[in-house]
Every structure is written in structure tokens, then in C-alpha cells.
Amino acid sequence: MWYVIQVRTGTEEEIQRQCETIIDKSILEKSFIPKYEQERKYQGKWHTELKVLFPGYVFLVSDEKEKLFFELKRIMGLTKLLGTGETIVPLTNEEVNFLLRLGGEEQTVEMSEGIIENDRVVVTSGPLKGNEGLIRKIDRHKRKAWLEIEMFGRTVEMQVGLEIVAKR
Asked: Where are the alpha helices (H) located in the chain, listed in sequence order?
């Protein structure tokens, strides 16, 4: 099962390192921070950078829900577990499958490419292909798209890399 913990934005890497170090390997299968590729232009060239897909969240994979809940009390800087009151609720199969489709095993959402046809975005390659309906806005200059998805029991906005190569 995949669980999500909320942390202060900017401390994701530190909390993930603590989880990997403190929590017993028999309880925590793995932890990760989903990322996305973004193109940024500086010094006259485009550079690919990795950015945190969900700032303020660290994902944990475990089959030991109760033990994991207990172990997480030892992590410094954890703000809260996503769930309902005292129980941690794992991500749904749909949410896990969506994240796997988008970011693969490495949980890195690669750049997508697309075109604009009659004021509609059509993604021609990359993880956004077939997910055009989730795109809420794009910034062609910054090569970014904002998606709106249902995750963690609410509507979440996320940014991913999208390069528009043509407009027809």
C-alpha cells in the first residue's frame, strides 16, 4: 500500500532520508518523492531540471499499516499523515495506477510534447498523452502545464513539463 505523509515544503528530502534510516526495512518497503522534469532557460540554453511534483509530501510504501504509524512518530519534522483522524488511509488503486502511468517506477514525470490545434492542446508524446482533459492551463514560454487531479481525497493542482512545438 502507498501512504502519504505531509511535511513542511522544502524538507521532503530530509524527511525521506530519516524514514529510510529510522524505519525498519521489514516495515518500510520504500519511500519516494515524485518529481517532474522541467525545462529552464539560462545562459542562453535550455536545461532539464527535476522539481518536486507534490511539494510538502513524501510517499511511503508498506504493508504494515499499524507498525508504520507507530514508527512515524519517531520522525522529526513530520506534520501529519494523510488519513481520517487516527487512521492512515492508503492511496486508492486508481491514484497509485495514475501515478505509475504518469511517472513510471522511478516516479519521474518526463517532459511531454504537444501542439495546439484550434485552441485545444493535443499531447503528441510523453506521459500527458491521453490525459489532455486534466490540463487546466499551460505556459508555453516556461514549457509548463498545470493539471487538476483528484488525489489525497481532494482536488490537487500539480505542475508538469509540457513543450508546445506547434500551433495550428
From this structure: 12-22, 65-72, 93-103
pLDDT, one tens digit per residue, over 48-94 is 999 999 999 999 999 998 898 888 888 887 766 666 555 667 899 99
Alpha-carbon 57 to chain mean position: 8
> Tell me, what's the pLDDT at 83?
63
Nearest in space to 16 (alpha carbons), one of 64, 62, 75, 65:
75
Whole-Å CA distances, 149 to 86, 153, 161: 25, 10, 16
Q: Are 40 and 114 in contact (CB under 8 A)?
A: no
Separation of alpha carbons 10 and 158, rounded Å: 16
Q: Coil, helix or strand for 15? A: helix
Angle of CA points 156, 145, 120, to nearest 5°: 110
